[in-house]
Queue: 2 jobs
Job 1
Amino acid sequence: MNDTFLKACRGEAVDYTPVWLMRQAGRYLPEYQAMRSQVDFLTLCKNPKLAAEVTLQPVDILGVDAAILFSDILIPLEVMGMRLEFSEKEGPVLSDPVRNKAGVERLEIPDPEEDLPFIFDTIKLLRKELANRVPLIGFSGAPFTLATYLIEGGSSKSFVHTKRMMFQNSPAFHYLMEKLSTTVSSYLSAQIKAGAQAVQLFDTWAGVLTPFDYAKYALPYVKRIIAEVKKEGAPVIYFANDCAGILKEIKKTGADVTGIDWRIDLGDGIKKLGKKAVVQGNLDPCALFLPHEQIEDRVKDILWKGESARGHIFNLGHGVLPQTPVENVIALVEAVHTYGRKP
Ligand code: CP3
């Protein structure tokens, strides 16, 4: 069994630096595109047989050291009572955004196993199909990032509705974060009970907050979720995109592993988190457009910098982009496996 990824999460000695990639399943793979020409995205997410198939594609094609459940962070918002659509142009659209106390009150706290059975069926099916080939990662959006989608009604540039609610209607904002935290805790715990061997909390938009506001409006909820989910015994990874300005606060999350985006040098990130940290990251996803030798140079640099942490899991600094050439992603994984061997 390849448990290198799980060992690295726990900060244990490994033979080589393990690698997986955020958004390793997706549109850059022709095999994924073939599947998507048959079914729409949400149907794919809700069909355990198809979702499991798409989860396994990058494991077979790239040879990564972990699989990540194919789903989306916005799926639980549907069973909280929101209408969710993915439009080709705009990305996710949530109708009737939550902007006040009444909106928060309408949201239901789901019972994950009861309301999202396909998630747990997919996890169980994947554990069977993976047969311990590589570990399976489950995931959820972190409450602040989920709150931005609920409040904005989709993606945003300025997050003006979110910050306005945060500042002008703090009680309603905190009430929303409470409901989301309860949901995320039970959702992740249920994923681990069903067979997920590690979980990642995606805080894609945490980096739009000032350090002061991150500490006040987001961090307490992240801490609470991580403390709760850790009781299940599986490692918890916390990834905040654009984390450089808030790393001092992120140090307090209690996560087993901290994901780092590409905007900060990995060595500097480790200095800020302390040498006891286990880190994940942080190649710029656009570095995959470079010639192979230059991808290798960047891999070596990141591997070398990763050595100063207690543990390092190689990843991109954010998700694989749809335009990425598959052969370059394969070359990346090979380079990590070649140059990441421990003497
Ligand atoms: O391979 C994996 O990483 C697992 C699957 C996964 C998806 N989304 C599939 C997906 C994961 C872990 C996510 C997380 C997710 N979803 C995040 C956090 C990570 C990040 O990228 O910051 C966020 C913010 C979302 C919300 C979301 N989902 C957006 C904004 C979009 C549209 C933009 C885009 O990238 O397409 C999605 C759609 C989505 N999620 C796709 C996939 C494969 C593309 C859907 C398609 O096939 O058309």
Job 2
Amino acid sequence: MDENLKRYIELIPKAELHVHIEGTFEPELMFEIAQRNNVSLNYNSVEDLRKAYEFNSLQDFLDIYYGAANVLLHEQDFYDLTMAYLQRAHADNVVHTEIFFDPQTHTERGVSFETVINGISNALKDAKTQLGISSKLIMCFLRHLSEQSALETLEEALPYKHKIIAIGLDSSEKGNPPSKFFNAFNRVREEGFFVVCHAGEEGPAEYVWEAIDLLEAERIDHGVASIHDETLMDELRDRDIPLTVCPLSNLKLKVVDDLKQVPIKAFLDKGMLVTLNSDDPSYFGGYVNDNYLQTAKALNLSRNDIYTLAKNSFTASFITAEERNAFIEKLHTFDKNFR
Ligand code: HPA
Ligand code: ZN
């Protein structure tokens, strides 16, 4: 790739809108925390663990991902995990990030909601002061669990409402359509949260329709299956519903065989609000800049495409108009001065 475009991608200020904090857990930190908590991992070494990162489907990955999360017990563990991600994102010139967390992965093991959210949010606060990176927190319900469990999790979250901007839906998509959580998301909206939803990753375009029409999702996570439905793409564009696409994730989980098949260019050409993100960077071989770089290379993206993707990331963020304008101004200044 052109050296100049590479530098442009690396340096451009951007927001990341689709990253699971549990998916940023690097093997080195995993072993460190496992050791200090006296818990055993199913692997003998960092190398052994990395070798297991060969996935044929979303479920293959989730089995390892949930296993690794078992070593997280104390507030400090959640703090360290979050701070490590924020430092890494900062190095990629991420200036704003909206992070998912899965409370049920932890509360089901007896770790309290309070431990999880305090550890994460203290790191977010410190990173704002120390690195200048701004952030929001998005709580996800695990869709392989029941709607009742989601409703109970929502109740547990209410005392921490001021720390959570939006609520989403993740985990095993096939067989767990958005409609399964219709009542839970009615409650979510009554409480005034934004709604996001993983849909159209492994599941069909129909699940994206359910997410926008039944759950009234403001943003779709992945959504790549929308490429098979022209009417849906028009609808997403006309309603300004962004997609948070994660190309390296799609490649590693065999949603596509080649990055060339990730429909970024098609979505951009349609005028849809598409963004690039890392999903679970420690498992999928790259952070946000790796996603930009490899996608740009595979799809021959131009400097103008990169600018649009970065701008979309701010347009699609859950921030105030004032914050958005400030970020876009910063982006504009960067672009104007870039040599
Ligand atoms: N899809 C669904 N659930 C997830 C993912 C994903 O890509 N990553 C972490 N949980
Ligand atoms: Zn995801």
